[in-house]
Each structure stands twice: as C-alpha cells, then as structure tokens.
Amino acid sequence: MTVSVLRYGLCCLTLLLGWQSSVACAAQPSESLLPPTTKGFVSVPDIGLLLDRWNETQLGQLMVDEKMKPFVESLKRQMESKVNRADQQLGLTWSDLESVAGGDVCLAVAQPWDEQAEANAIAAYVAKAVDAAKAKDKSAAEVAKITQDASAEAKAEQRKLRARQHAMIVLVDVTGRDDETQALLKKIDGEFTKRKANKSAQMIRGVETAVYTIEAAGDQPERRAFIAVHQDRLIAVDHEGVIDNLLARFGATDGASLVTVPAFQHAIKNSEAAFGETAPHLRWFVEPFGYTEIARAYDQGRRRRGTDMLQVLANQGFDAIQGLGGFVVLSEGEYEVLHRTFVYAPPVKRAADDKNLEKYDLAARMLEFPNSTVLAPPKWVPRDLAAYLSFNWNVQKAFYASETIVNEIAGDEVFHDVLESIKTDPNGPQIDIEKELVAYLGTRATMVSDYREPISPKSERMLFAIEVTNPAAVMDTINRAMESDPAAKKRVFEDHVIWEILNEDPHEVPTLHLDSPGGFGFDGFGADEPVEEEEEEKPMIPNSAVTVAFGHLVIASHVDYVVEILSEHAEDDHLAKAADYELVRQALEKLGAGNDSFNFFARTDESIRVTYEMMKQGRMPESESVLGKMLNRMFEPEEEGVMREQRIDGGELPDFEVARRYLGPGGFYVRSTEMGWDVAGCLLSKESK
C-alpha cells in the first residue's frame, strides 16, 4: 500500500499517469468500512479528476516531455516492479485496477487486535502470579512487587504479539465496471492457480468470498487472500478477521471504524475546514507507531541492529503523536500542489491531583515549538540556496528532556555522569556544559542547504544554527572543547575561528526508519518471529564544522559552506529579498501563515539537483544527500550490507536544465495548537510572478 505520502507520493502519481476511469460516487466512504485498527490509509476519490489535474501541473508536463520519455518509461517499470509485489499477496497489480476503477480507490493497512482480549490476558497472567506468591506466603509488599512486575511482563508480551499483526486492504469502487470486474476476478483466479494455491468458497457475512491459500514454504509463512465483490466494491484482504469486520460495516451507521478514530477525525476535520468547498484529489492518514510495526511485520520482523528506537520513542512519550493526515489538491488556482495536514498529538491525560503540568511525558517534552510572527530569513541567510527552514524551539528544555532517552538508549543512568566527566576529567575539556553552553541557547533554530559543484555523492551541504544569548561565552566554550579534541582542526577566516571535525570512521548510532510494508509499496510478507536485524547506518553528517557567528551557534556539514556564509554580501543579497521566496511567502500567507512555529522554503530544482545528477551518472547508490538516502532506502538490495546496483538507467535522463524549467519553488508552515500541529504547504509554478 502506498500509505506514506512522504515516501511514495511521487511513486503513486507516476503510476497514476497510466490510469483512466469514469467517475461514480460511492454510497459509503471507504473510511467508514475500514476497521478502527487501520494504521495507514490513502484514498483517491476520483481518479479521472486527479489525472486531469495532474496533467495540468508542470510536474505532469515534465513527465510527458519528449526528452524525459525514455527515463519516465524506465521509472514506471521500476515503480511497478516495486509496487506490484502485492500481486504475490492478493493477486492484484496496479494495471489490474486500471479498467475496474469506477470511483474511489482506497489502499490501507491495519493491525488487527482485540483490546479486550489483551486486557483479559494481562489480568489472567497477573492473577496467576499473585496466586503463586500468596501460596508461598509472600508478604504484602512482596505481592505488590510481584503484581507490578507481572503486569509489566504481560503488557510487554502483548505488545510483541500485537506488533506481529498485519492486514492489507484494497477497496475499489467498481460501479459501472461489471464486465471488467468479472474479467479481473478470472485473471486473479488464474494467477493463484499458477501458484498452486488451494481455492475455496466461503460465505462471510452473507457475501460469497473466494479464498486462496498458499501453503508455507521455506521461510515464507502460509498466505491467504480473500477476494469478494459486494455493493459495487471490489474487496481484497489478506486477513479473515479484517474482511469479516469490513463486510459487517456495509450499511452500518454506527460502531467503531476508522471514522471514529480521534486522530483521523481531527486530520479530516482540519483539512475540510481549510479547503472549504474545494474537493481533495487525495486523502491520507498514518498512525506512525502502528504503521511502522506493520512495516516490520510485512518485512518478516526485520529492523536495525542495536537499540529498538521505535520502542524507545514509544517509551519516552512520543506515542503522544497518535496520527497525521490530510488532503492534497493539484492545479488549484495559483498552486501546482496544495496540501493540508494535521498532526494529532493531544496533551497527556492526567489525574486531577497530578502535579505534573507538562503537556507530554519524558523526552517528548522536547516537542515544544512556540508560535511567533518572526520566522523570516535573517540577513545572514544567503539568497542562493536550495532550502531554508526556521523554527521556534525551547532548546534548553529539549536538552534536559533528552536525559531519559539518552539513559534508555545507553541502558544506564549516564546523562549526568557524562556531563560531570566533561566538567571534571583532567584529560578532558573541563567544561560545564549546562552553565557554559546550554544556559546560553536561545529559542530559534535555522537550517539551510545547497550543493557544490562538480556534483558528487558529498555535494549536498547543510548548515544548522541556534540563536545564543552570549556569543562570546559560547565561542570560548567551543574553543576549549575543540582544543582537546584530536579530531578537530582549527581554521581562521577573517576574525572568525572555525573548527572542522573530521570523523573518517564515525561510530554507528541508532536511527529510526519508517519502512513501507510490502506490496503497493510493501516488501515481503508477515512472519511470526523476527528475523536477523539490519545493520545500522552511519550518521547523516560524518564530518562537520562548528563556530559562532551572527549571534548563532553554527554547525555545518562542510567548512567551506561556513566560510561562504561568513563572507560579506551585498545589502540585498539575502534570501528575504529573493523574488521566488517572496512569492512563496505570499502564497503561504493566503493559506493562513503568519503566526507559526515552522517556516520552510525550497527551490525544488536546486533541492533535487544532486540526486538527479547522481542518477544520471549511475552513482545513485553512493548518494549521501537526504533525498538520495531516501530513494536508496526504497530500492535497497535484498542482501544486507551490499551496495545496491542502480536499477534505473539514469543515463537516459536529459540534461538537468530540461527538468529545471518544470520545477518551481514551494514551502510550508506549521502552527502549534493545543491538540497538535497544523501544516499547510504548496508548490508553485516555475513561471509564477
């Protein structure tokens, strides 16, 4: 399923180029049929309209440019190869849906789970442990401790069981496509026959359902596909309980479904209010923690070696982020692409007598991004860049909130020990981090990026800056810290001291990856036990440079980027004076920007330049750009630890200038609210004036 818009949105739109359909209005929205355990959802209400609007955008025009055709065909073949892995699970491919879609097409994944059964299992486990303790005449204090431990053990075991549950769901409105639907059902039957699947007919909720079972073989578990047509809906599911629940929802006006999930409600309500009468061309929703568990389950439990960051983040209160979703519209007025998203993260519910007034718990307390009217680029931000991001953040609070997550990752109470060691170790810098650095950190952070030529895997440059209240004191602290670091090299530019840190063999750090499940963007099939974990990746920025300038603590990926930004510029030679930045600013203001926590601007052409050239050179697997890493993750090799071969023939790409003229500027803003974060963004035409 293509649930993660951030990761597979472009993939979806590319594949949709080959679709054609008539439009019919579904009697019942897909989300009212889906179970409340749905963790990922994408719906295209009107494929025909989406295609028409897509073709009106410059991105759509880019895809049909004669010079791009060879590459586009290659890309579509690769995307279809990736996406059509669902064929192995449900016997369906994207091309199969081309002739049967008469209206809404919905793709979803769910995590089937009975919360009442979970509660009963935990209670039974605890009761058994307590009975055993009492039989041994344990004291009341001992029984209380045993009760607490047993409850924690039972909950952990239930979490493991839940994390293995997964279901893939495809719903297609086939109104007016009776003949085509019957032809597709025959094709599906033929495909499963070739795979030697056992076929049976089963009545589920009074609906005749074809059930295809492929027996377990090797490391692949048994797979089952349930295919039915009911009330002009083609239904394909790989979990019996889920299709039973889904069929029971037809005609229902109450009861639990995706519609009743608070995070989904807020995402849709917020988007509807923002779009008004404008109908969305695509709707989506993701519950990040459940979705990632499903991704792992479909990937046979594979995850990165070392610390399980998904579990750590949940333990540290980040599961307060209960879901995010919204609408996407194409070619609407001045906007090439327009999107609204709501991130639902309500305050933690506390007892009336709880003295804790924090919005979130533990490390999640760092999620404090105040709104303000001052997020425009400062004068030191150069005009010529690829992307600009600035946001308000209580950095000092974030530093102290990180204590519990640092300790959990380390497996010990190390946070204060490390700070004390830095302060008192005679062989160290002897710096009081809290008093000499953290105490001076401000409440605004800024990040800029560009690239240097000639284009290579390391061309992308990034710079991160945090406001400080006492620049001289912070620079003194940095100097003393770097002087004792053998990996640091002192450089002087005019009156600035810059420290370059060279980490040729950076140590590995745990990272969180939100993988996409197999088929329609999914990889592999479910398994009961996790397999060997993947290796961790190296840090995004192995080398860095640090200094203090313009009232900011500056950390960059390349020392030459720092030097360029430190160089004097003409009065009007900064981003705020750029015409395209002003266009995006005005467009975002029309969407409601003005009192926000985040402000983002990007020149789409410059942002993808490194990735484009790496693909054209056949060196995409070597790319170290942010976009390059994301794409490499999509097309990773089957064998771990082996650099993949470039699967798309980038040699067919035209000169970048061909693509550049279709790629306009864009941006988004984020506004913090009591219940989460409201996000709105757009992409403008290259010819916008």
Structure, explained:
- α7 runs antiparallel to α8 (140-163).
- This protein folds into three domains: 5-111 and 167-256 and 285-298, no CATH class; 115-163; 345-503 and 539-684, no CATH class.
- Helices cover 36% and strands 21% of the residues.
- The chain has a 20-stranded antiparallel β-sheet, sandwiched between helices.
- The protein is globular.
- It is α+β, with helices and mostly antiparallel strands.
List keywords for this structure.
3 domains; 689 residues; 23 helices; 20-stranded antiparallel beta sheet; alpha+beta
Radius of gyration: 27 Å
Number of strands: 20
- Measured between the Cα atoms of the first and last residue, the distance is 38 Å
- What is the helix fraction of residues, given as a range? 25-40%
Output the structural class.
alpha+beta
| Average pLDDT, all residues | 85
Enumerate how many helices there are, as a single number.
Answer: 23
* Global geometry: globular
Strand content: 15-25%
Low confidence ranges: 1-26, 505-541, 637-644
Biggest sheet descriptor = 20 strands, antiparallel
The total domain count is 3
